[in-house]
Amino acid sequence: MNRTQLQKNSSETGKCVIYVMSRDQRVSQNHALLYAIKEAESKKLPIYVVFFYYSKVKSRGYRHYKFMFEGLSEVSENLKTLNIPFLFFDHNKLVELNKLNPESVYFDFSPLRGPRAVKSNFSETTAASVKVVDTHNIIPVWVISDKEEFAAYTIRSKIHKQIKRYLDEDFPGFSKLEKVDVPKIDAEVFPTSEYFEKLLVSFPKEGLYKPEFIGGYKNARNQLELFIDEKLKDYDELRNDPTKNNQSDLSPYLHFGQISSLEIVKELLKLSNSSLENILKKESLSKEEQSISAFIEELVVRKELSDNFCYYNENYDSIKGVKPWAKATLLEHQSDKREYIYSQEELEFAKTYDPAWNAAQIQMIQTGKMHGYMRMYWCKKILEWTKSPEEAVDIAVYLNDKYSLDGYDPNGYVGILWSIGGVHDRQWFDRPIFGKVRYMNYGGLKRKFDIKKYETKFASLR
Ligand SMILES: Cc1cc2nc3c(=O)[nH]c(=O)nc-3n(C[C@H](O)[C@H](O)[C@H](O)COP(=O)(O)OP(=O)(O)OC[C@H]3O[C@@H](n4cnc5c(N)ncnc54)[C@H](O)[C@@H]3O)c2cc1C
To answer: Which of 47, 111, 329, 363 could form a disulfide with 311 if both were Cys (CB 3.0 to 4.6 A apart)?
Structure first.
């Protein structure tokens, strides 16, 4: 199966093959690493894995770097066992890679503009071939579709048609390579957890953050096992109830690529007696299989739809990215009276009149992860309480990227535009402020769950 996009073709020869690890921070089932090793072996060249560290990425802080460094120290250990030098650069000058005279440089794929610009800028500076490998999605974004998909139902059939081939493909394990000399370049070689702890000191600690998740592949696997043992059976029924915490909590691991969705789906399918076809069609399934089916819908269809949106829509994190009907209806209601208007600061510190909204904001600040159902409510309320949809999107993006461990992710941008701008959703009845965009209110939360229980759990920002 071809997962590679050729960013730049070159017939120049070089002295090594490089994989620039970025979005997929793992060794397990990493196709970019696999392809780089294969090419290096066939050309009898050494392979190096490199990581460029950006100390300032949007509103990210201590929590993200802590989680990421935990994962990277495991990557470093794993690569050491394979005799593959792992070079960690504490700056973002990729051009320095050219000092190693690479023949090919592999990148993992991201649809977001920052990482895409890095690849194309680097391509301009190098004589090497540059290849981009999608090892984040089960089916590479450009293979599933060549355009922005309208909604989940339009991409679902395309995914269902192709997914079997990708799930059937074996991923060969990695074996130890011949030891090679570490190149002389200004980078930390095989960074250790002590090295990362020192780097973390430069980020102000967040007093309000009480970490619940520890990064890394091993912890991702533990999280998956916990989900399978304790939550999977009831996932379909309970995942939307914020008082039950019955989601997988895998999103931080998936976001940093510490585990792949491909590996998760393969594990889940081992638990099912039904065929993949029946799981996808939701036919004749046991309770647990129904949950597997619902989970695959989220993990594959919804998640890969998000990558599709960000890949084909350059305005993925702005109100400009929504459909014309949504732009028109929101504009029509732009001057509707808002009962409450809150500033970004009031929202950030959970100072609204609404205890459920405040609880959701507090959950995100304290744990690094807001419950999925509350995320929709949280975001829609921001539209109701700010002066314009533009401002609402900007504040939601800022807060989500700053406090969610899984933030700065296509799923986040699409979740925000779904909530505020009806992306991938249908039109509803016209109403104040929201126009034809789907609306949610506190009454709905009260009817569906014991929302007071959730409010009590996250009652104060301390
Ligand atoms: C306003 C808003 C903001 C969001 N921000 C983010 C974000 O920053 N990062 C993020 O990963 N997700 C985001 N989501 C999507 C979704 O809420 C989370 O993926 C989910 O809650 C993560 O928790 P989990 O892994 O326990 O979910 P589970 O229910 O266990 O789902 C498993 C996986 O499926 C995928 N998934 C689940 N729901 C969705 C969805 N609606 N869209 C796309 N993929 C999905 C995720 O990869 C998730 O980890 C957002 C949704 C909204 C409405």
So the answer is: 111
Domain identity same for 225 and 150: yes
DSSP 3-state of 314: coil
Distance of CA 137 from the midpoint of ligand 1 (Å): 15
CATH code for the domain in which residue 389 is found: 1.10.579.10
Residue 260 lies in a domain: yes
444 in any annotated domain: yes
Question: Given this model, what pLDDT does residue 338 score?
Answer: 96
Query: Which residue(s) pair with 86 in the sheet?
Result: 49
All residues at 6 or more sequence positions from 65 whose CB lies less than 8 Å from its CB, including other chains: 199, 200, 203
- Among the candidates 242, 277, 312, a domain finishes at 312
Q: By alpha-carbon position, which residue is closest to atom 39 of ligand 1?
A: 298
Whether 407 lines ligand 1, by a CB cut-off of 6 Å, is yes
Rounded mean pLDDT for each run of 10 residues along the chain, 462 residues in total = 95 97 98 98 97 88 97 98 97 93 98 97 98 98 98 98 97 94 93 97 93 96 98 97 96 98 98 96 95 98 98 98 98 96 98 98 98 98 98 98 98 98 98 98 96 96 80
The total domain count for the chain is 3
Query: Ligand 1 within 6 A of 376 CB?
Result: yes
Which protein residue's CA is at the shortest distance from atom 32 of ligand 1? 299
Q: Number of C-alpha atoms within 13 angstroms, CB side, residue 288?
A: 14
- What is the pLDDT at residue 263? 98
Count how many Cα atoms sit within 13 Å of the Cα of residue 88 in the half-sphere of its side chain.
21
Cβ-contact 4, 142 below 8 angstroms: no
Residue 64 Cβ inside 6 Å of ligand 1? The answer reads no
Q: Tell me how far the alpha carbon of residue 254 lies from the centroid of ligand 1, in angstroms.
A: 10
Q: Could you tell me the distance, in angstroms and rounded to a whole number, from the CA of residue 396 to the centre of ligand 1? A: 15
Of how many residues is the chain composed?
462
The alpha carbon of 25 and the centre of ligand 1 are apart by a number of angstroms equal to: 19
Q: Are residues 149 and 160 part of one domain?
A: yes
